[in-house]
Design a protein that fits this description.
Elements: E1 7-8, H1 12-21, H2 28-39, H3 44-58, H4 65-71, H5 73-76, H6 84-96, E2 112-113
Antiparallel strand pairs: 1-2
Length: 120
């Protein structure tokens, strides 16, 4: 039986939305652009560097955003292990899936990607 790794990641869209709730309307576009550097990073090291840069840039004005990402960081890291196309699908899939849809094979796996290549 092949070993399978389950990926349980928070929905990146929800992390971004939550982050934008902390910032003022005037800064939303630029904050969203800077957050994009985090979740569009090619690996977890690059993403953590982008998060550090974000915190330097915005930490004083919006002190709650970077810590909210850091609290979820251990769950965000598997997102960067996915191939680019797959992670792009996964970015939106968890948010757009209705509870009754679930995983067609196993309703217990809602929000989990058991095979990173399954979305290719």
């Amino acid at each position: 039986m092949p070993s399978t790794r389950l990926f349980r990641t928070p929905c990146i869209v929800h992390l971004v939305r939550n982050s934008l709730n902390f910032c003022g309307w005037k800064d939303r576009k630029i904050v969203a652009k800077d957050l994009k550097r985090i979740y569009k990073a090619t690996n977890d090291v690059e993403a953590e560097k982008a998060l550090d840069d974000f915190e330097v840039e915005w930490g004083k004005k919006y002190p709650s955003i970077a810590p909210s990402w850091r609290r979820a960081w251990q769950e965000v890291i598997p997102f960067f292990c996915l191939p680019a196309r797959c992670s792009e699908n996964h970015l939106y899939d968890q948010c757009n899936r209705k509870p009754e849809q679930g995983d067609p094979e196993n309703h217990e796996n809602k929000g989990q990607l058991s095979n990173p290549l399954s979305c290719m």
